[in-house]
Amino acid sequence: MSELSLRDLRLCFEGVVPAVVATAAADGTPNITHLSKVHYVDDEHVALSNQFFSKTTRNLAENPRASMMVIAPSYEQYRLELRYERTERRGPVFDGLARDVETIAALTGMQDVFKLRSADVYRVVGIEQYPPLERAAASVQRASGGPVALGELSARLCRCPDLYTLVEAALDGLAELFGFEHSLLLLLDEQGSRLYTIASHGYAKPGVGSEVRVGEGIIGMAAARCTAMRVGNLNQMRKYSRSVRRAFEDHGAIGPGREIPLPGLERGESQLAVPAMVHGQLLGVLVIDSPQSVAFDERDEALLNVVAGLVAGAIEIDWAHERAAEAVAAVARYRPEPPSAEGRATLVRFFPADGSTFVDMDYLIKGVAGRILWSLLGHYTREGREEFTNREVRLDPSLELPELRDNLESRLILLKRRLEERGAPIHIEKSGRGRFRVVVDQPLRLEAIGADARQT
Amino acid sequence: MIDPHTKAVLEGGSALIVGTVDAGGQPHATRAWGLEVGDTVAGRVRIVLPGDDPVTVENLRATGRLALNATDVPTLESIQAQGRATAVESAVAADRRRVARFCDAFFGDVQRVDGTPRALLERLVPRDFVVCVAVLEEFYNQTPGPRAGSRMGGGVA
């Protein structure tokens, strides 16, 4: 092997620029094709996923020699001389390739279409750089970080008095201490089927309340697998995925598809999503994004895993404290004056079918958080109640919260953030452990629409 | 026979890659930097190849076998042609102009679709060129998906 090693070329294997492979049949007929990604196996081997390029596979059965061109994100190009060695249908190499294939599929909801048949492993017998150029540094650039920064972030999180402050401190800290300017924290819903965004940092639209199905996209895959998902070539993955979907649609194999809108940067190139877990249970997913390709590496993954663990632990502790405090929380407080009928009233519309709630015709929120708001405002307008305990909300049968794990605290935070984002005249303020207050700036008119609707 | 759509894909700034093979069956991959269809009925084309890639030139002279893939950057529509080299020639001024037009089209698409700056893409361009005159005989759909590898109507056996 030449003085270049596969390790030197590792950024070529992130799939930012498609690779090329040439093979030849036994009769000397050459074949050439693009590859979306080549996988680094070890210092002597690479692997290719076998899904569609059957001619390449057939050629290799007759003639094990191949020529490959790979390109780094900095556009240095290398030609590799390969010998086909073996095909794997299980094991860590296969699993790594399968994860990539599933991730691409998850971007366009084609999990049933994209199937890895096998992982073909090649020995690399020669490497040359072509054209010969000065090579760029082969490492991911980052703003700052390290154990000292991690210690500082941990200390900041430990000082947070409540969950609301904590999620903000976590995302602010990722930007300030590590240079991760775009981040999201999503929590798992009560049914375990969706993730909802509870906080974000560095996006044009905050996206609080946006949802991701478990299993969809990079974030949903991280939740489904309870493992970190790191990609540095989102643009190429989207392009490849769209192309395959179109080909299947033209073939009549599947119906017209949809690209799944997911929270994140509009033209993000890199995304790292890690599960936030505690006691073996998934609580949510912590995500960082970048417009740069191959922006994150295994060190970032390790770091984010630690931060996600800290956040998950803190959420769990907060949840336990809230539950304990509910037992001794004071009784509800009432507004001194009855609601005024004068002045402009804010219209709150509620759709019981899915909990969708609109404030002055603007969409606010749906689902559990929408139902909570509707219930609170009902008490507020009917009885003049301002102060509530988490416990009584938790026991409200109209909310149908699960008994074991209801995410009430995080739903209240989500609601509070959405009300703030929309500039609504309704505010939720924490008034102590296990209790909170509803503050309303102007008269309300409540209107429920649809089946089982009740007008207030 | 090269149909009008195939001609447009081959000449229109698609990513062009070429596979050749030596007498011992060792394949070799390279990039092409422009293509002109000279005769659609006979399938005759003029392919601009790197002049500083001696293996490609030796293979074309030794076996003449070649595979050419053209992939449209925005859609990844991909066509593979297989054929034979009939001559390898020095590039002339018209070929260099073709390279310049090809780079404008190809790099323009990559820049628009992937956001890659042209200065980076220029790093791939060889310093010198040769031209392979070839006859393309068979065409295959190579767009990723269920029809990848299927023979296209425009080809001749």
What does this structure look like?
The complex is a heterodimer of chains A (456) and B (157). By secondary structure, chain A is of the alpha+beta class. Chain A is built from ten helices and 20 strands. The longest helix of chain A is centred in the C-terminal third of the chain and has 29 residues. Chain B is α+β, with helices and mostly antiparallel strands and 157 residues long. Chain B is built from four helices and seven strands. A seven-stranded antiparallel β-sheet of chain B has the order 2-1-5-6-7-4-3.
Short description:
Chain A is an alpha+beta fold and 456 residues long. Helices cover 32% and strands 28% of the residues of chain A. In chain A, strand 3 and strand 4 form a beta hairpin.
The secondary structure category of chain A is alpha+beta
Record field, number of beta strands of chain A: 20
Series of H and E elements of chain B:
HEEEEHEEHHE
- Arrangement of strands in the largest sheet of chain B: 2-1-5-6-7-4-3
Mean pLDDT of chain B: 93
Structural class of chain B: alpha+beta
Supply Rg of chain B.
15 Å
